[in-house]
Amino acid sequence: MFDTLSDRLSGIFGKLRGKGRLTDTDIDATAREIRLALLEADVALPVVKAFIGRVKERARGSEVSQALNPAQQVIKIVHEELVGVLGGEHRRLRFAKQPPTVIMLAGLQGSGKTTLAGKLSNWLKTQGHQPLLVAADLQRPNAVGQLQVLGGRAGVEVFAPEPGNGVGDPVAVAKASIEHARRSARDVVIVDTAGRLGIDAEMMAQAAAIRDAVDPDEVIFVIDAMVGQDAVRTAEAFRDGVGITGVVLSKLDGDARGGAALSVRQVTGEPILFASTGEKLSDFDVFHPDRMASRILGMGDMLTLIEQAEQAFDADQKEKMTAKLMGGEQFTLEDFLDQLIAVRRMGPIANVLAMMPGMGQMKDQLAEVDDKHFDKVTAIIRSMTPGERTNPKIINGSRRARIANGSGVTVMDVNQLLNRFAEAQKMMKQMGGMMGLPGGGRRKATKSPKNKRKGNKGGNRGGGARQRGGGGVPAGFPGGMPQLPPGLDPNALGGGDGLPPGFKLPKIDFNKLNKREKG
After folding, report:
1. Per residue, what are the HEC states of 398-455?
2. 196 — phi, psi (to 5°)?
3. 3-state secondary structure at position 508
4. What's the whole-model pTM score?
5. What does the alpha-carbon distance between residue 24 and residue 507 come to, in Å, rounded to a whole number?
6. pLDDT-based confidence at residue 171 (cuts at 50, 70, 90)
7. Do 270 and 245 form a contact (C-beta atoms < 8 A)?
8. Could you read off the pLDDT of 73-132 as tens digits, one per residue?
9. Rounded to a whole number, what is the largest CA-CA distance in the chain?
């Protein structure tokens, strides 16, 4: 969604990095280019004017003129102002003191309200709530049926006393759903309402009547992020006609310019609560303005990456891996497979890598990353016997040929996997020290003749990992992540402004993940 804007801003900041001192002319030229980039991204003109005014005022102040690196200070100012445009701090859903909490969804037809209702119910269920979906869109053909399908996938009850398709009173359905929720002990009620292709008096009157009937704690406007400035005008109309309390951005995975997302918070005055990025129920994220601003500026989004990893790696798996690290046990191909499957649960690997700082400058390479490579690795490991997974050293030439035939790959592919796995095993021996765990693989490492020949007495295991570009493990990140294929030179990213101090990028060989496989 924000690729074009990100590329423009990266180019603008690239020109600043070589300057030791910024003149008023530099600041004016930078502000002019940022203004053009925002207007091209379809950001509302009043929002652009206010944004540029604040940036220029701060850029001419003492925080830049007295800074050791003025260019980085300007980037910091743009980041902070962008966070402000997107809403500042994240606001949580407001829950009623006495359940049920009522959430009413509003928006135009085609904006993604019904899909969002299913995603929101699924997310609330993972948070420990018992939601109820209410089919109050009785006009759009098969809207009731669609909500029932989504509710079935999420394992959430759907209150649908009327068949829809023009039959039934949506106000009466919404009102009856509150009593049904109380009787069935549902603590959150999500009311899906009807939309129109455009704003009209009948739609607004019906939405206002439903609002009055259920007295919602949240009235969430679902905005199609691909519509552009029309979406902002529609949001204003709903704000004035119904009274919205929050916004959800849908279709953020699209290829539109994204101006609506940057404008809606400033124009409506209401916070963005969630972002919807696909058709799956899991394609749904809490909206954090600071993280979105970092993504737009190509700084990555490590916090979201860590949260996704925490969800993908279950507690038992993390405890098992921690026990291995602390006990100095061998990291096996079975463990490697478990970690690989967990990484795949985090979503497309290109999206995961894109959240890492500095990867914004590698968009072309990320576009070539293919998840089929990881599926191939999974097939190779599953073609091995339990003994081979535990002790890969027994895999001789005939076994390699058998594994290759069983997984539909070449012997060379099997050899490459075993070589990369040997590197991962070495990394896991040192993971205990890098994570601050007692023991770890340190005791075993001191017994290795190879380490003694290198003059390594086993005393500074974490330092060795940093020299190889490991960079340690982010706080809260689950242990046991398999090492990605080596090959990417972090120095090729040029500068790395905005990265945390001492942060090292991962080594990734994009040739091994290329969609256009040779042969």
Report:
1. HHHHHHHHHHCCCHHHHHHHHHHHHHHHHHHHHHHHHCCCCCCCHHHHCCCHHHHHCC
2. -135, 170
3. coil
4. 0.61
5. 40
6. very high
7. yes
8. 788 888 888 888 888 888 889 999 998 999 999 988 888 889 999 999 999 999 999 999
9. 82
